[in-house]
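User: structure tokens for this one?
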Amino acid sequence: MAPPLGGPEFVSAEYVSRRVIDGIEKNHHFIVTQPAFKPVLAKYAKRILEAFDYGLAHEEEIGCAPR
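Assistant:
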């Protein structure tokens, strides 16, 4: 199976279930079951933050401002 989004291969169901149980027991808001996907997520989050920066830097050109 090809890795999604150019990321790493998937991990076992046993690994995921142990991470989920641990996260629930410790009341974590986020439970990471695919730690190797961190670089893919970081790249995606960077693109989102760049979109915010662009929008804020070009408010006058666009002709709008936040309320």
